[in-house]
């Protein structure tokens, strides 16, 4: 979706302002927000693509005025409601009132190290060979889907070159919507800065994206 | 940890909202608050940019390791026991005299947690995410880094599940240094691409 998350090339947000010796957390609630988000995800009711889509579906004004942990929590409330774990009444009252759906699993403290060390690999075996090979000229798709996608607006309908064939990966555009993993080959595709930004572009700039196969056409 | 004190009226509204959510989920038996403590401790004290710095120092010291890191970063990094969440599919990209690498996630906050830990706020915020792909030189200037005009800049937008680690150029004057000493020259920002490795005189003398 052409949502607030799709930031590449947007203007007006000001300087980056890195903080010297920045702490990992700026308030204790950020620690709890990280942990609650990971523990809730570990219930197994949704996948990372659905999470990302919930975050980018915040109203743009809300997204841009929220810190990243705030974005996580707001999206998490949406996910928990959608999957029947909390109700609007629970959240309004700040208490557990309504019964919850049964999770696939509950992450216990003793299992955290193993779960974090294992992660959640998203590569999948592919039955079909890759359509493109390194060096192939390609054009990225021109589309504006209302659902989740990982092809940023600035990189649509652009000429580029396949630099590397990576692996088969779960396709986020369907997986975010409960429509299956439908794995596709992913390629690192390089785009010249001048192709993306045109007049005035930095001539020394090359940008790469990692693109699922259906984002690409031969050029 | 201060989350278990009882003065809710002292909390700002968002802190209260997070605490309420944690309470609801805990009472419903959906989460284990002790698991949150372990997660926080892991990312606050165990997994951070020192992991990545050791990978870089080893690549500087050992050409065979550097070659492995180029070909199969996930396996090469796993050999140092850095694995797991948001590091499942790693790529290492090597700076050269001709090309400087910079990593961003314009669409969210993708970042190689297994080697760099949790991302800093600026990495997740709109100014960096919007400008890294269109004005990387301007962004680097804000980090105090001015690259030669002829240097090619390669920006890696982490749009899929590959996570990128920049291997900066090894500074001159570090011949014969141990990996431990070399690792001290490698900052988090150097592994994102918003800094170079520190020059030897910028670090303290070994005791």
From TrEMBL, chain A:
Top EC class for this record: lyase
Alphabetical list of InterPro entries matching this protein: CN_hydtase_beta-like_N (IPR049054), CN_hydtase_beta_C (IPR042262), CN_hydtase_beta_dom_C (IPR024690), Elect_transpt_acc-like_dom_sf (IPR008990), Nitrile_hydratase_bsu (IPR003168)
Keywords: Lyase
EC number: 4.2.1.84
Superkingdom classification of source: Bacteria
Reaction(s) catalysed (UniProt annotation): an aliphatic primary amide = an aliphatic nitrile + H2O
Pfam families per UniProt: NHase_beta_C (PF02211), NHase_beta_N (PF21006)
Keyword S-adenosyl-L-methionine attributed: no
SUPFAM superfamilies: Electron transport accessory proteins
MF terms in GO: nitrile hydratase activity; transition metal ion binding
Function, as annotated: NHase catalyzes the hydration of various nitrile compounds to the corresponding amides.
Family: Belongs to the nitrile hydratase subunit beta family.
Full protein name: Nitrile hydratase subunit beta
Organism, as annotated: Mesorhizobium jarvisii
Automatic annotation (TrEMBL), chain B:
Superkingdom to which the source organism belongs: Bacteria
Catalytic activity: an aliphatic primary amide = an aliphatic nitrile + H2O
Molecular function per GO: nitrile hydratase activity; transition metal ion binding
InterPro entries tied to this protein: CN_Hdrase_a/SCN_Hdrase_g_sf, CN_Hdrtase_a/SCN_Hdrlase_g, CN_Hdrtase_asu/SCN_Hdrlase_gsu, Nitrile_hydratase_asu
UniProt KW keywords: Lyase, Metal-binding
Protein family: Belongs to the nitrile hydratase subunit alpha family.
The protein's Enzyme Commission number: 4.2.1.84
Name of the protein: nitrile hydratase
Domain Nitrile hydratase alpha/Thiocyanate hydrolase gamma, chain residue ranges per copy: 14-195
Enzyme's top EC category: lyase
Gene: nthA
């Amino acid at each position: 979706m052409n949502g607030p998350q799709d930031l590449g090339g947007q203007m007006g947000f000001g300087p980056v302002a890195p903080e010297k010796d920045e702490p990992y957390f700026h308030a204790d609630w950020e620690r709890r927000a990280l942990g609650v988000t990971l523990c809730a995800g570990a219930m197994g009711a949704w996948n990372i693509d659905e999470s990302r889509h919930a975050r980018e579906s915040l109203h743009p004004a809300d997204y841009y005025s929220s810190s990243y942990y705030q974005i996580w929590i707001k999206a998490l409330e949406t996910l928990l409601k959608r999957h029947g774990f909390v109700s609007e009444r629970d959240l309004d009252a700040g208490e557990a009132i309504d019964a919850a759906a049964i999770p696939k699993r509950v992450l216990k403290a003793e299992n955290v190290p193993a779960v974090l060390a294992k992660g959640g690999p998203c590569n999948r075996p592919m039955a079909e060979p890759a359509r493109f090979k390194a060096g192939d000229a390609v054009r990225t798709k021109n589309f504006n889907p209302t659902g989740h996608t990982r092809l940023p607006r600035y990189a649509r309908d652009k000429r580029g070159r396949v630099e590397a064939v990576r692996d088969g990966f779960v396709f986020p555009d369907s997986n975010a919507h409960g429509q299956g993993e439908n794995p596709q080959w992913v390629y690192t595709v390089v785009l010249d800065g001048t192709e993306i930004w045109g007049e005035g572009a930095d001539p020394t700039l090359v940008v790469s994206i990692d693109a699922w196969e259906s984002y690409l056409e031969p050029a | 940890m201060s989350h278990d004190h009882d003065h809710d009226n002292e909390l700002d509204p968002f802190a209260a909202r997070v605490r309420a959510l944690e309470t609801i989920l805990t009472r419903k038996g959906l989460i284990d608050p002790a698991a949150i403590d372990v997660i926080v401790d892991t990312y606050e004290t165990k997994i951070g940019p020192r992991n990545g710095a050791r990978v870089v120092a080893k690549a500087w010291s050992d050409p065979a390791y550097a070659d492995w890191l180029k070909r199969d970063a996930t396996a090469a990094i796993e050999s140092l026991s850095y694995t797991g969440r948001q590091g499942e599919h790693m790529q290492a990209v090597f700076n050269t005299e001709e090309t400087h690498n910079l990593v961003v996630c314009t669409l969210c906050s993708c970042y190689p947690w297994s080697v760099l830990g949790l991302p800093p706020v600026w990495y997740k915020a709109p100014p960096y995410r919007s400008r890294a792909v269109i004005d990387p030189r301007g962004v680097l200037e804000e980090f105090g880094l001015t690259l030669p005009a002829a240097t090619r800049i390669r920006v890696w937008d982490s749009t899929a599940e590959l996570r990128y680690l920049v291997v900066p150029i090894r500074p001159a004057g570090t011949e014969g240094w141990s990996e431990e000493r070399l690792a001290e020259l490698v900052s988090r920002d150097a592994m994102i691409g918003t800094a170079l490795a520190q020059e030897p005189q910028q670090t303290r003398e070994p005791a």
